[in-house]
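[SOLVED] Need 3D model of a two-part complex

Original post:
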Amino acid sequence: MIEIKNLKKTYSNVTVVDIPHLAIAKGESVGLVGNNGAGKTTLFRMILDLILPESGEITSNGEVVAGHEHWKTYTASYLDEGFLIEYLTPEEYLYFIGGLHQQSRAQVDETLTALGDFFNGEILNRGKYIRDLSKGNQCKVGVASCLLQNPQLLMLDEPFANIDPSTQFRLKNMLKDANKSKGVTTIVSSHDLNHITDVCDRILLMEKGVIIKDIATSSSTLSELEDYFGVGQTVGATPVVKIDEEENH
Amino acid sequence: MISTFIRHELKAFWRSKNTGKSIAVRIVMIFLILYLFGCILLAGIGMDKILEIAFPNDDLVKSFCGIVLIYFLFDLFMRLQLQELPTLRVQPYLHLPIKRNTLVGYLAITAVFSMFNLWPFLLFLPFIFKIIAPDSGIIVALAFVVAIIGISVFNNYLALYLKRKSNLNGWIFLITAAVLILIVIADFWWHFYSLHNISYAFFGRLLTMPILAIIPALLGIVMYYFNFLYLKQNLYLETLTARKVKIYKSNTDIPFLSRFGTIGDLAANEIKLVFRNKRSRSSLIIGLFFMFYGLIFYTNKSLGQGWYLFAGMYMTGAFVVNYGQFMFGWQASHFDGILVSKITFSDFVKAKYLLFTTVSVISFVLTIPYVYFGWHVLLVHFVMCVWNIGVTTTIVLFFANRNFKRIDLSKSGTMNWEGVGASQLLLTLPLILTPYIIYTPFAVFKHPDIGLALLAATGFIAILTRNYWIKQLEADYYSKRYRIAEGFRNK
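Solution:
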């Protein structure tokens, strides 16, 4: 699905992403973990052709991403609130996104009805513009707009960060369902190690722009990650779960 | 503590993105402000002359005393509209161990540092020292100064209080505005009383009894204290923020545009952008004000057809220029979303063309009443409308590809310099000059109508060859898109 070769990005002489080779196959569910500044969001942005790498290239379905638009038809993503049109109501926004994919309003409504539980009655018909929603509810709108597009590739940057526990569990189930029964390739980043190891079959651990671990999820993965993140803590002590806000670029 | 606040405040000013990233913008800004103050000061210095012309039968001092109160009514109205609340600045300090009285005092005091408090002095001090001081002595002049300070302070805090109140309840603003307007109408239309006389009744007495100046001074102090108490009781985020009352926001459809598919959807979104955000709304309203340009140009017989072009261009294209000059900065906050979604650039640009064409045609229809000044005026409007739709839009979009500055939609438009950069300053020149490059040679040789016809032809050709220009814009855009997106991400 995605292939990355010799990808490099530097900001004022500091390398933020340096990936010699990475291949993500169709139908994989990939989790991206790493501390703030590890380069997760930058990597996402390069895969989405939002920033240009210094060198190297990314291909999606065998075609180069940079400067092309073919991938847009099957890729859905939500990185931050900057992906939402803040002065529209959630309905207007979702109809708009559906319209881009030639869906009628009835079709959009159908998808949204299925998302009723996920929305928990806080999104639709509330008479609010997206800008007036809380960060968590904005995230729900973003995720919904992704699912609406019936993507083959789904990319979410820290979707668990701002949403409430119930929604976190629902989102996990939705991601698993999309991946297992619909074969959607998912790439998700998170600071919540429990969630990410639960949802993803493959974990990429990034540090200072380099992928230092590429592991298939097993029963020992969680403790392996906790060992890495729990710097200076004795193994077996209370696990350090990092839930902090992503840095703003 | 207060000195720390002031230091923070100064840092906030110099480091804010608004304070102009480029020197050019800062210089233009300073000049504009100086110009504005200069104008007011000139009016102040020439006050005696102006009053002589306005009230030729009255004594100079009498007519001066008569207008002071009227000015302050107007002043209050202006403040309600334009003065900014010193608001969120205390938010970072609320949870820290700092005394409430210090915070409130600071908030209340800094409210005095508003441009509005300079105006009355620029306007009235010259007259007071030029006419009143030599006539009635320095004591009386000082009494006038004290009275003016008092009323300014009173107005300042009254306006802030009303603004804070109206943030909680939108009706307050409407009621206040209605009351102010009623006060004026009751005088000038219904003649129930005369503000002029009321004003003179007080300020006239000041001439003989300077001690009366203590009344406005007391009023000012009371209003300040009142404001201080109110703030102290309401030092909570909800009352401090300038957030308006929530009303139910409904979904809107624009049926006319839906027939254009994705392009129509994009244009509809942009229309919603214009109407649902403060700053873009004000650029539309300014556009409506330009509709009155014709009244200036067409009533003045000494201005020839050359000026008609200018008026016609602005009346049918004010929105294109005013709104377009900041493109695509309006969409900066969700530009990433646009880039990754299934929108091709040509659709994106076509939507802009659709929007501009719609608005220009509507503007043209609105200018039809100017046919009163002759059918030729209407013809010029039509030609310039075609020109705007064909040529101006393309020039605007060409510069839009060179605009890397984001615009925060939530901030208001008055004195807001965010998003202003070299590309805006450069834009106006070709916009105004190009029609004249075509028109002037013919006008000089006494064939202005040929020039006009040529302008229309150019406009039509540009419309017919639009797809070619879209291709050019697209190629240009692809070489700059990463820079644009990066600039927009910089908050």
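Edit: The radius of gyration of chain A is 18 Å.
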